Amino acid sequence: MSNYHIKTFEEYFHIYRKSVREPENFWEEVAEEHFVWRKRWDNVLRWDFSKPEIAWFEGAQLNITENCLDRHLRTRGDKTAILFEPNNPNEPAQHITYTELYERVCKMANVLKAKGIKKGDRVCIYLPMIPELSVALLACARIGAIHSVVFAGFSSTALSTRINDSSCKMVITSDGSYRGNKSIDLKGIVDEALEQCPTVESVLVVNRVGSSIHMEQGRDEWIQPLLDAAQPHCEPEVMEAEDPLFILYTSGSTGKPKGMVHTTAGYMVFIAYTFKNIFQYREPDIFWCTADIGWITGHSYIVYGPLLNGATSVLFEGVPSYPDFGRFWEIVEKHSITHFYTAPTAIRALAKEDLNYVEKYNLSSLKVLGSVGEPINEEAWHWYNDHVGKKKSPIVDTWWQTETGGILISPIPYVTPTKPTYATLPLPGIQPALMDENGQEIKGNQVDGRLCVKFPWPSMARTIWGDHERYRTTYFTAFEGKYFTGDGALRDEVGYYRITGRVDDVIIVSGHNLGTAPIEDAINEHPAVAESAIVGFPHDVKGNALYGFVMLKDVGEVRDRDNLRKEINQQISDRIGPIAKLDKIQFVEGLPKTRSGKIMRRILRKIAGNETENLGDTSTLLDPEVVQQIIKDRL
Ligand code: 6R9
User: Fold this and answer.
1) Which of 149, 242, 252, 307 has its CA 20 to 30 A from that of 37?
2) CA pair distance 21, 568, nearest whole angstrom
3) Is any ligand 1 atom within 6 A of the Cβ of residue 402?
């Protein structure tokens, strides 16, 4: 029996048990059956979480793009690989076949090579959701360059920090981008960022909006003429299994973003396997993940997962509210989408609008619905199930992280009975553990604790770019011998997992992970600010919104507080991006601190969420008076 496609619940348990008993045999079988290798591995797995060192399929040689493109040409050359749906509904959709995609990737790979990009070089990609974005990732992978995609909603400072952290040699961007009825001057943001980026030698610019932009002599070039002149074939670079494939930055609880490094063979095997099983993908299904490729969800389940399986993957440039709140459903009907994968924040935003926006469209093509990015609340789950899935399409609530590369806990549709708000069961090969505060594993059911993983899986990040020690301390020291996720979870009476949220200083706003530290740093840079602390509080649509407690240097000096609030938010917008703006800013005379000087965010969180009745243990507070004053002035 093939291990690859799980079809019944019994089969799931059978495969799961095998994957725990003999993980190496399990993954070896998956790797043998479904990929093109230039050379077979010598060793399936070598690992030591104390260092931490993790290596899968060592000795193997391959190129992931051969698996995404070349091998499909004979059997699926004319099949649509990317179905591009533009921001403007009147602009025609584009069906890019596997053959066309292969040629476009090869051409771009040849352009990168001609610009001096070699195996191991880092290329920053700062593009909107247009086909060139997928092409750029694959072109890098084709020649062994390491792509570092930066979400095109990040500010110039956030962009330059990421470019510098991994010393990128090149940036691929566009003149501008469309989002709803707005267009954004992406190239202007890049120009500003590059004032601080000495390692960038060249910038390739895609023409998307036709705006007139500054082109820096000797540095910037329009990409289209170069592509037109390039050869449509490019020999794939032969990569070692553990050669880095990409870097993707994620927020941490300290200031600097963490460049998570994913490597080639393990990532490929796990992403292909999870795509196929978690979505029960079968030809000729049409798969749509609404995430941005700037996040891990887009990397794994818009680009690599679908292409590794020869699927049709929808790439949507726009937003769910343009030209109106029916846009998602209009697209589902128009392209007979079978799989729809989105985030709870989008579901909540659409659920607030008139039901007619959903009911107007024929959604009968849908077979599987997915959710990712944050816990899905009961109300949103039911709205999704009732009005989008019409109670016929199972919802897969998929839990995972940038660090995990692919989905670790999720129902398998038509196999695992779903339960609202539960991500349910681990995928084969994944061994979760709940830990108590003393570092002991909590066995049995009906328990809750901190979520760890006990055994390596192929697509886990291998390090943080340039800072392996930070990788070790962030993920492998809280619980000895285990990978710590930063999330809390509970396990119900049948062993189903429910993720309850972050237990560290990361706040998820509209599905975006925001570290408290970088936002506080941005606030503190304002000349009037002495110190600040931010926390999340519940919000109907965003899941969490941000509440800032800000202490000023000289209270007497400040005349216009509303203006100051605007300036603080502008500062955050400039440093990080508009997604990190605060919903509420309360000026305080002091912050609650422990005797060792740590801000007690736990207390601030309760105040922001209006749960001031029970503040918990306040005995370690240096000055309890401060807390009473903050409660009194609460917004
Ligand atoms: C894929 C992605 C990771 C954090 C993760 C957790 C939260 C993601 C979730 C979920 C509950 C789910 N998260 N999926 N929480 N249920 N189905 O989102 O990666 O951006 O790195 O975020 O998102 O807190 O630790 P990333």
Assistant:
1) 149
2) 54
3) yes
Ligand 1 contacts CB of residue 401 (under 6 A): yes
pTM value is 0.91
Smallest CA separation from ligand 1 atom 17, residue: 399
- Residue 527: CB atoms within 10 A of its CB come to 6
User: Percentage of the chain with pLDDT > 70?
Assistant: 97
Evaluate whether 498 touches 556 at the Cβ level (below 8 Å).
no
Q: Is residue 562 located within the same domain as residue 483?
A: no
With the most atoms of ligand 1 within 8 angstroms of its CB, the residue from 149, 508, 510 to mutate is 508
At 543, which helix (H) or strand (E)?
strand 543-552
In a domain, 388, yes or no: no
End residue of a domain, out of 424, 459, 489: 489
Q: Is the dihedral of CA 289, 290, 291, 292 positive or negative?
A: positive
What is the full DSSP assignment across 437-468?
TTS-B--SSSEEEEEEE-S--TTS--EETT-H
Distance CA 590, CA 532 (A): 9
Question: What does the longest C-alpha to C-alpha distance in the chain come to?
Answer: 76
> Does 466 lie in the same domain as 418?
yes
Quote the strand ranges of 176-305, DSSP E.
177-179, 182-184, 202-206, 220-222, 239-240, 244-250, 258-263, 286-289
Q: What is the pLDDT of residue 622?
A: 76
**Residue 534 CA to chain centroid, in angstroms?**
22
Domain membership of residue 248 as a residue range: 9-319+394-489
Q: Which one-letter DSSP state was computed for residue 556? A: G
Given ligand 1 and candidates 274, 408, 487, 510, which is best to mutate, with the most ligand atoms within 8 Å of its CB?
487
At residue 160, what is the residue type?
S
Query: With b meaning 16 or more CB within 10 Å and e meaning fewer, what string describes 311-330?
Result: bbbbbbbbbbbbeebbbbbb
Closest alpha carbon to 368 in 331, 394, 407 = 394
- On whether both 400 and 284 belong to a single domain, the answer is yes
Stretches where the chain sits below pLDDT 50 are 1-2
Contact yes or no for 258/474 (Cβ under 8 A): yes
- Identify whether 387 is part of a domain: no
Question: What pLDDT shows up at residue 2?
Answer: 47
CA atoms within 13 A on the CB side of 189: 30
Verify that 525 and 438 share a domain, yes or no. no
pLDDT in tens, 77-109: 999 999 999 999 999 999 999 999 999 999 999
Q: Same domain, yes or no, for 432 and 537?
A: no
